[in-house]
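Hey, can you fold this one?
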Amino acid sequence: MALSLRDAPIKRKLTLVILVTSSFALLLMGSAVITYEFVTFRRSLAANIGVLGQIIASNSTAALAFRDPKNAKEILSALSAEHQVSVAAIYDAKGRLFASFPNGTPSSEFPVRPDHDGRAFERAHLVLFGPISQEGERLGTIYVRADLGEMYSRFTFYGALLLLVAACAFAGAITLSSALQRRISVPILELAKVATAVSERQDYSVRGTKHGADEIGQLTDAFNQMLTRIGETNEALSKAKEAAESANQAKDNFLAILSHELRTPLTPVLATVAMLEHDQTVPPPMLQELAIIRRNIEVEARLIDDLLDVTGITRGKLELHRQVIDVRSLVEHVMQNYCANAAAQKNLHVSIEVTATHTHIQADRSRMTQVFWNLLQNACKFTPHGGAISIRLYNRRPDQQSEPDLLIEISDTGIGISAETMPRIFRAFEQGEHSRARRFGGLGLGLAISRAIVELHDGSITAESEGLDKGTKFVIRLQTVDAREEPDARKPQSDLSAPGRIGGLRILLVEDHPDTAEQLARLLKRAGHQVTCAGCVKEAQERTLRSRDRSEDREFDLLISDLGLPDGSGYDLMRDLANRYPIPGIALSGFGMDDDIHNSLAAGFSRHLTKPVDWEELKTEIQKIARAHAAASADAKDS
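Sure. Predicted structure:
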């Protein structure tokens, strides 16, 4: 057969190819149409019968409840308008035939007892059993049987139509194939096959066969050359992509490890400074020097955070945890806690004017705090002694939207920004003139991060300056929301962090860095807590088991644990303890990216604190847990 076909005229070959292709296409198309019609008809019929069954069931509750078969038959008679329904019946709660449709139908046409609820297709029928219930009590069962004859009639029509279309297609294919010429058809068909192979398999090694030096032959040469160039460029692109992905991953790993290694040594230093600052015997001059050390450690920690934030923004991994927050309270909080000392040292006059009546937004509280911290720190840094910083909050309604925009202006009388520098101030690692960078320091990341955060909140931030030494004004525009959307979000947060200590907790401190463990333990003991130290997961587990084995001692009230431990991770320890008995936990880590925080919370920790650990922040978190512990103890005594 193959040999005779090879020697046959090209016209016969083309005819055979076209006929086979047409037949396959028609068969596939006809099968698809019939299959679609079959599925659609069954689905439509099932849905229709299901709705009818529900309606009959709903209307039959009274008839069953009052044992009124006549009424039930009248309800069933409504099915006469549905020509597809052949028989229907209502059974009572005991499964006995109560009413049937149509009248006069012998009982043998109906099931002796109702089957399980649901619907099923038989060879020529669709059968439905459904519950008849009232207020949760089942009163009976509805039975409906629909005829599938219409579906089979429709398939007979489609089959005849398909045969007619196939006959016409065959006639057209024979006519078309007789007009084709070998010199035109063969090269083009071969070239099309090559193109299809390239498109479907991305195989650039295939080549078209040249059959002559005419225009089609030139097209074949050009096509083959294009495939060669595309193939060479595509291996190159794959290697470049792999190299870029590898470099990005290496960069992320490097930054994470660098962050951890830079943060970890700062924790014992900051803890020591905090302990000395609270020591009543330290003379005032020494306290001033300690404050200098603490501020510079905090600045270094902020630089590390900025580097990680820029990386997260670049990779699109900066996550937001939105809630309804009051921007006025947030700005006042930043002024009092992060700006007051810096402004006082330079004798700056800081004022705030609030005319806005809508000050609530849907935002990430910590990220928006970071934005205002950056802007106010810049204002303090770049404003000379005796200058002024003013903050304004006001509303503006640009269109007919339901809630107005909130605008926050932060203006200073500082060094200003030149016109040629202005376009660059929101770029990462840009800090305007080189002289300014040398004079004021920093990496130039704060404004770039602030703009990214604001834009992630669907807002905008702009800068204005009349020139050097003429001050700067930053304007943030955010969309407000109705404060009633989340009333709990507007409750003040300070009630959990009020000063004062509530009771002592039994704390298990797990830290493999000796200096950090020693200084944190001293601070915690000085705060009135009982501290047990462990340097690895195994030692911590032994401590907890030993504590529970002694009948006179309770288990620990709080776990404070580093995440990177010699024989495992703080995640494993937290999960192990949580499985044995409920215990709150605070994670300490030099890794502070969003994924790290998410993993800590998922493991069961109540809070993730990034090193260097701020003592006041750690103390606040412990106080929250102490209050919860005291409340639980009080409830237990009352009960």
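The chain has 18 helices and 19 strands. Let me know if you want another pass with a different chain boundary.
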